[in-house]
Each structure stands twice: as structure tokens, then as C-alpha cells.
Hints:
By secondary structure, this protein is mainly beta. Helix content is 0%, strand content 29%. The protein has no helices and ten strands. The relative contact order is 0.23. The mean pLDDT is 98.
Amino acid sequence: VIEHDVRIGNHCHVSTNAVINGAVQVGDGxxxxxxxxxxxxxxxGEGALIAMGVTVRRDISAGRRYMG
Length: 68
């Protein structure tokens, strides 16, 4: 699910059952894992990796691997 006002950069992968809530900004080259959920209004930096099944409640810096 990709909600309103979301920006997803180039060359990103959004896996199955991911939920990207409103006004999230995802930088280029990111990977969003299956069944993950991103809180509204956060920013995910370029090249970040979000693991499967995690809930992201704060900004993730560029290149970071967020495992929850």
C-alpha cells in the first residue's frame, strides 16, 4: 500500500505487503522489505535498506540498514 503524497525515488524496490503511509519520502535506490510499515511523514535516505516486517517510526539516514 502506498498512501497519499508519497515520493519514491528512482530504482527502488517495494516488496509485497509493505505499507508506506502518507507524505513519506524515499530516496533513490532504496529497498523496502516485505510486510514493513513506514510511519507517515518520515524520510528514508538514498540507498537505505528496510528489513522485512519492521515498523519504521523515525527518519532513516542514507545508506543505513534498518533491521528494527
